[in-house]
Model the fold of this input.
Amino acid sequence: MGILRWMGPEGDTCLAWSEADTNSMAAVCARIARAVREGRGVFEVDEEGRAVRVDAFSPSAREVVVIPQVKGG
Done:
């Protein structure tokens, strides 16, 4: 089981998935695809808290964090 943490103006929204539940995986996959299209940062976090930027959903991930697009000034 994994968790998607979507960070935005409304706060931190969590969405869990299980490899045994295709509906939950489809929902998370769609949210990650949307995040990539919008230019958001999508990071897979490992057990030790290290984050690696990704551009696709991995069902075996433990945690995925999506942050707003960072804009320069």
The helical segments are 22-37. The CA atoms of residues 3 and 16 lie 4 Å apart.
